[in-house]
Design a protein that fits this description.
single chain, 229 residues, 5-stranded mixed beta sheet, two-stranded antiparallel sheet, 51% helix, binds adenosine-5'-diphosphate, binds magnesium ion, histidine kinase
């Protein structure tokens, strides 16, 4: 619990900082992209390598800014009643091309009649995307991602997303969700931070179980009804 509180304080400070910085970076980025596009038209032939590096790096900056803008969003997001299984199905459809490319298959076990939950569907989709993307990335030679959804006895929806990847050592488990914590060469280390933040805004929580060489399971618990605040 203490760990959870500490994380959320850090996130609030970062969120406020991010609001300013992300917006400030966006405008010069747009200008840069425009002018590089113009340069590319004239110099693509001689320097195609340079342009491909520039484009990759600009896209990387873009994705970092986008993650931060999610954190920076004002707290008053629109919550609606929505079928969470449907949101998951849409997410899996969205990622199916990437999954096929990595030889990854989905095994979906959706409990029947999961009641709707109050949520911000696009934010929740972001949560699922971030976790599933990590699952795909951790299985370089392919594997199965098992997604199970069921209603718990204490009126929550339990969504578990399990991969067959390398697993996470115990001492690293507590670093998940820390800004910029990544073990990937091209990672941003922002995906899980955003994920934790969104789940927290839904008054839910996440528990991670992992076994080295076997795989990792992300358990997300979301309340069926948002508490009156
Ligand atoms: P990124 O994917 O950019 O590295 P994330 O915040 O999404 O950033 O994840 C942070 C780190 O958590 C990853 O670099 C990886 O070390 C670890 N991680 C996340 N999901 C998994 C998983 N399913 N299996 C193993 N490690 C994971
Ligand atoms: Mg990630």
């Amino acid at each position: 619990m203490e760990e959870q509180l500490r994380k959320s304080d850090t996130l609030n400070v970062i969120g406020q900082l991010a609001a300013g910085i992300a917006h400030e970076i966006r405008n010069p980025m747009t200008a840069l992209k425009g002018f590089i596009q113009l340069l590319e038209d004239s110099f693509k032939e001689e320097h195609s390598m340079y342009f491909s590096v520039i484009t990759t790096e600009l896209n990387r900056i873009d994705s970092i800014i986008n993650e931060f803008l999610i954190l920076a969003k004002p707290q008053a997001v629109m919550f609606v009643e929505k079928d969470v299984a449907k949101i998951m199905q849409e997410t899996v459809d969205l990622l199916s091309a990437q999954a096929v490319l990595h030889n990854v298959q989905f095994n979906m076990v959706l409990g029947n009649e999961i009641p709707s939950i109050y949520c911000e569907p696009n934010q929740l989709k972001k949560v699922f995307i971030n976790i599933i993307k990590n699952a795909i990335e951790v299985m370089p030679t392919g594997g199965i991602i098992t997604i199970i959804m069921k209603e718990t006895d204490d009126h929550k929806v339990h969504i578990s997303i399990r991969d067959e990847g390398s697993g996470i050592p115990d001492e690293k488990l507590k670093r998940l969700g820390e800004p910029f914590y990544t073990t990937k060469e091209r990672g941003t280390g922002l995906g899980l931070m955003v994920t934790y933040k969104i789940v927290e805004e839904h008054e839910g929580n996440i528990q991670v179980e992992s076994e080295l060489g076997v795989g990792t399971t992300f358990n997300i618990y979301l309340p069926l009804k948002k508490g009156n605040k």
